[in-house]
Each structure stands twice: as C-alpha cells, then as structure tokens.
Protein: Phage tail protein
Amino acid sequence: MLRLEVPVGVPLPWPTDRPPTGWLLCNGARFDKTQYPLLASAYPSGQLPDLRGEFIRGADAGRQVDTGRTVLSTQGDAIRNITGQFGYVRQGQWAPWVTATGAFYQTSTFSAAIKRGDPDNWGSVSAFDASRVVPTAHENRPRNVAFNYIVRGA
Structure:
C-alpha cells in the first residue's frame, strides 16, 4: 500500500500495469474535478498529463539549461549535432588521398581523369552513418526502464 503522505498530483513511477486503489494512471485522461478536488488544484484543467512513453524533465527555473519552458509544457525530441567532413578529388599521384571523418566514410574510389594524360586523378563516393559516432535507434532516448506514472486521486 502506498503511503498517503505523498502530495496529490505528484507523479510516481509504478511497477505494474494497474494502479493501486485510489490512484490514477497519468494517461492524459480527464477526471471529475468535484470527485477529486485536491487533484484539480494540481491540474486545474481536469486532465492528467499523458506520461506514457515520456520522460519527466525538471523545469529550468532560472538555471539557463532549458530556457523558455513552462511547467507541464512538452518538448519534442532532438539530438546533438553530428559532424564530419570529406574531400572530393585527389589530383596527381603525390596529392593526399581523399578522406572522410566523423560520421562520413568512403564506400569506394574511382578514376576521375579530367583530361587524357593527367596522372592518377581519383574521386571518391562517401556516405553518412551516424552510428559510426553515436548509438542509434528509431528514436532518440537515454537508457531507461519502463514504469507507469500514477497520481493519487483525492
């Protein structure tokens, strides 16, 4: 049984699919503000936040880490910029090889003589693969463990 000292409206991680009696899942559902007046003081709209598949982030509150956000506002995903560079053409046998760095890599090189008789001109095909620099998936996410968020209905 959960202790009732937890303030109404505080989302808590819960390890099962069903909340305990007197608690509600944070699934974006509307609730009856007369039945749950204390919950309505935390969520005056009468709607619980939908925390399914979401991470809770502390409000910036003047720290200058995530400025411009208000409490209960949502934020889309983003990743840090991934950079790299590559050279295009090598001219002459003593010129440096075509290179690729960071998330770019060479898939092949080929002869690219511009005019007949030019010695050792080469081109390159390069590709971009972020997984060469960072872990990748079909979404951006930190390591995590799945829980349901619940709030006390009162």
